[in-house]
């Protein structure tokens, strides 16, 4: 019997059914969960004005990950960097103008933040079906969730209804974003300033279960830890040797990429915490979590219980998505994510 290939339309329908079914079963507390507003935001904000929004974002993220598996971590990081700098208002997506220097070229983002073109592409598709309706910041929040789910991580309901901001600040990004070179107390203080807490530090750091880091972000651990001229003594010796081979102590290796979790590179799981317990965390700021009495018990709990990590990660991402939200007359729905209307 002849086997007929699926038409493109049938193939798309199958994919939509697959992803929609998968996500529906992952929803906590059933569909009624989505009827609960949270201040000016709600889970069903676009149900009438753009009913296909979820499908469009899901398809765009799927296509991006199919082309580049690293993009999952990049989209998640982009969402974090957006919300952590003056709130979730899409400022990280803006290009520089004559009126302001934006966040794209701030030190934490320059030559490292990625995924702008993915959000721009999804936005263009959304505009075709729902013109001047959906904000770029909401698209980014949804894309980050889809990237995690498609990498094997947890689903969480995304509150919607944010507006895009009208400006961006390179200075704010340089000052507000946590750095892998900072002490844990400094990083925690930056989280607290955003209405988060030490638990959120541990939980959201778990995003480092996917993605890559450039050698310069951890090289001092390998050769000159805290100015001693020696490696970080907490590093596993075999892990240290491998890293010194991958990232030799020469300037030209600074931008080489190394997976944050070499055990399950593209899978969103709790291996990150197991690495910390085993002294094989890549970043100094990550390894520090096991050395603090406030954070060490949580690291051990998450290393032993992937379901606990998944549940708490979903909760912390919901908190992150509510930082500094713009509604009412203070923002806009950008037509293009890189420029103010």
TrEMBL record:
It catalyses: 2 a phenolic donor + H2O2 = 2 a phenolic radical donor + 2 H2O. The keyword Secreted applies. Ca(2+) 1 binds at residues 82, 85, 87, 91, 103. Its EC number is 1.11.1.7. Residues 1-26 form the signal peptide. Heme b binds at residue 208. Its main location: secreted. Keywords: Calcium, Disulfide bond, Glycoprotein, Heme, Hydrogen peroxide, Iron, Metal-binding, Oxidoreductase, Peroxidase, Secreted, Signal. Residues 40-341 form the Plant heme peroxidase family profile domain. This is Peroxidase.
């Amino acid at each position: 019997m002849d086997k007929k290939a699926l038409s493109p339309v049938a193939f798309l329908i199958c994919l939509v059914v697959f992803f929609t079914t998968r996500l529906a079963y992952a929803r906590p507390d059933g569909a009624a969960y989505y009827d609960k507003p949270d201040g000016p935001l709600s889970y069903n904000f676009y149900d009438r004005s753009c009913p296909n929004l979820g499908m469009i974002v899901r398809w765009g993220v799927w296509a991006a990950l199919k082309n580049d598996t690293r993009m999952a971590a990049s989209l998640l990081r982009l969402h974090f960097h957006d919300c952590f700098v003056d709130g979730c208002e899409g400022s990280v997506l803006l290009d520089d103008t004559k009126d302001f220097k934006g966040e794209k070229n701030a030190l934490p983002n320059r030559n490292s933040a990625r995924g702008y073109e993915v959000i721009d592409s999804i936005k263009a598709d959304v505009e075709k079906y729902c013109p001047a309706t959906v904000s770029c910041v909401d698209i980014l929040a949804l894309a980050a969730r889809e990237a995690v789910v498609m990498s094997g991580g947890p689903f969480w309901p995304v509150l919607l209804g944010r507006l895009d901001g009208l400006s961006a600040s390179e200075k704010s990004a340089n000052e507000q974003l946590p750095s892998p070179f900072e002490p844990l107390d400094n990083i925690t203080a930056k989280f607290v300033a955003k209405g988060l807490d030490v638990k959120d530090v541990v939980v959201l750091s778990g995003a480092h279960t996917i993605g890559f880091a450039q050698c310069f972000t951890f090289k001092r651990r390998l050769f000159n830890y805290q100015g001693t001229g020696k490696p970080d003594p907490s590093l596993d010796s075999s892990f240290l040797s491998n890293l010194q081979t991958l990232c030799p102590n020469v300037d030209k290796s600074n931008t080489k990429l190394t997976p944050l979790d070499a055990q399950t590179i593209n899978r969103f799981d709790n291996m990150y915490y197991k690495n910390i317990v085993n002294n094989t965390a890549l970043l100094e700021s990550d390894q520090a979590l096991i050395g603090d009495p406030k954070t060490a018990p949580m690291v051990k709990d998450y290393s032993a219980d992937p379901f606990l990590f998944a549940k708490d990660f979903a909760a912390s991402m919901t908190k992150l998505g509510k930082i500094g939200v713009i509604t009412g007359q203070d923002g806009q729905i950008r037509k293009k994510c890189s420029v103010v209307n």
